[in-house]
Amino acid sequence: MSKLPSPISRLLHHRTQGLKKGDPVSLPIMASSTFVLAGDPDGSHFYGRNGNPTIEEVEAEIGILEGGEAVLFPSGMAAIASVFFGYLRPGDTVLVHSDGYYNVRALLDTQFVPIGVKVRTCPTADMITADMTGCRLVMIETPSNPGLAVCDIAKVAERAKAAGALLVADNTTATPIGQQPLDLGADLVVMADTKAMAGHSDVLAGHVASRDSALLKPVRTWRRLAGAIVSPFDAYLLHRGMATLELRLSRANANAMAAAEALRAHPAVSAVNYPGLTNDPSHEVAKRQMRGFGPIVSFTLANRKTAEKFIENNPLIVAATSFGGVHTSAECRIRWGDDVPEGFIRLACGIEPTDDLVSSLTRTLDSLG
């Protein structure tokens, strides 16, 4: 019996297997909010907030990559919000990362703490020993953004299950190509598809995935009632981006590895965080559960002035937030209030030729004096 095609091959040919003579190879954009509905509703399309063929096709493609079922949203934060609003009620307790994406904690603090939801925080590296007693949800982000700490997903999942909590894993940094949290015991995966999944810095999108349809029911209900619907046009852009995800991520990951090694060797750099480095505290865990170590490297220069000068003077760096695009970008994360040193830079590697990128990093560091 022949081996099943890889997820990428199945993604690329998901539509082609069912095409008939004269059908378009490219995914059509079904730009309609309204569909014919004669008589009573019968499960067919009738209104864009309830379903759209283009969006559903892209959800099926994401499901192939995740090895589960996916629900698409107009941003990563909308996907995260759907889980929180779908599951958290007054009196519930949620444990979240203290060193991951800051807007997750901001959402909980502004919308859920006032109604009586209790929030505990824990560094990503310490999630394996965190107190999960009484938790409704446990949320991890691994590697964390921006510090790139890693936790053992399987062990955290085991502890969450023993505590009666659902484990939610933010897999934005690694993507389904680099890591499969559902394989490791996570109940729900959330992602900002804005980043590497779409990959061209031109669309906002996100998704929630699971292998249990029942767990996605509250997520779907919240999306429908809140109206958090991605447009068919943006869904198409995500579809187009995912077709080259593996190729783009392969180059971006290689760039990050080479950049991390070059940065570690330079005297102007006081610290480098990258789970691909053998001396990184997260390396052994990352090596077990990841395929590739991601496109992001974080490192520290003497102070913010030096860090800003580095970003400004490098011709292959775009001074921008976000990551996962084709262009290498960087920013001083202290400007967002992250608990990082003043000269801390998050470098998000793009798909430039590796030698060009590494040379530009080294030359710019040398020029700082």
Summarize it:
This protein is α/β, with parallel strands linked by helices.
What's the CATH first level of the largest domain?
Alpha Beta
Question: What low-confidence regions span 5 or more consecutive residues with pLDDT below 50?
Answer: none
Shape: globular
In CATH terms, the superfamily of the largest domain is Type I PLP-dependent aspartate aminotransferase-like (Major domain)
Largest sheet report: 7 strands, mixed
CATH topology (fold) name of the largest domain: Aspartate Aminotransferase, domain 2
Summed up, the helix count is: 12
- Which percent range fits the helix content? 25-40%
The proportion of residues in beta strands is: 5-15%
Q: N-to-C terminal Cα separation, in Å?
A: 62 Å
Number of domains: 2
Q: Please give the CATH architecture of the largest domain.
A: 3-Layer(aba) Sandwich
Number of DSSP-assigned strands? 12
Classify the secondary structure makeup into a structural class. alpha/beta
Mean pLDDT across all amino acids: 96
Report the order of strands and helices.
HHEHEHEEHEHEEHHHEHEHEEEH
Strand order within the widest sheet?
A: 1-7-6-5-4-2-3
